[in-house]
Amino acid sequence: MKRFWLLTCCLLSKVNDDDIHIRLGTLLEQQQELLTLTRAIHTKLPLINLAPAEEEVWLTRKTVMELLYITRSTFFRRKNQENWTRKKIGKSWYYLKSSVLGGPR
């Protein structure tokens, strides 16, 4: 116990009262800022659904054709007409399953 007290006294003697007041003032300002932000969020934003988001599924051209039971020419026509969400990785194009099925993009 004496050792702990001695160590505490040594640590406190290195930090003066002005430093403590400055640090406490900074912490108080940060706390007030967080409180203000929390109130703003609480009053202006609707409640959000914290359920896990649905994972994006990307399909190849062949998989899309099999999924929709369509031919190659129909695939290319619908791809252009319906403006499917797509991305290119390397030399291959991939299509977002939800956009191919007509859901939200």
Question: Can you describe this structure?
Answer:
The chain folds into 2 domains: 2-44; 58-100. Helix content is 61%, strand content 10%. With 105 residues, it is mainly alpha-helical. The protein is built from 5 helices and 3 strands, in the order H-H-E-H-H-E-E-H. It has helices at 2-14, 17-44, 61-68, 72-82, 97-100, and strands at residues 58-59, 86-89, 92-96. The chain is elongated, with a radius of gyration of 30 Å.
The percentage helix is 55-70%
For the termini, the CA-CA separation is 65 Å
Mean pLDDT: 78
Largest sheet: 3 strands, antiparallel
What fraction of residues sit in β-strands?
A: 5-15%
Number of domains: 2
Total number of beta strands: 3
Q: Which runs of at least 5 residues are low in confidence (pLDDT < 50)?
A: none
Number of helices: 5
Radius of gyration: 30 Å
Structural class by sheet pairing and helices: mainly alpha
Query: How do the strands line up in the largest sheet?
Result: 1-3-2
Gross morphology is: elongated
What string gives the helices and strands in order? HHEHHEEH
Outline of this structure?
The protein is mostly helical. 61% of the residues lie in helices and 10% in strands.
Topology (SSEs and partners):
Elements (H helix, E strand, L loop, with lengths): L1 H13 L2 H28 L13 E2 L1 H8 L3 H11 L3 E4 L2 E5 H4 L5
Antiparallel strand pairs: 1-3, 2-3
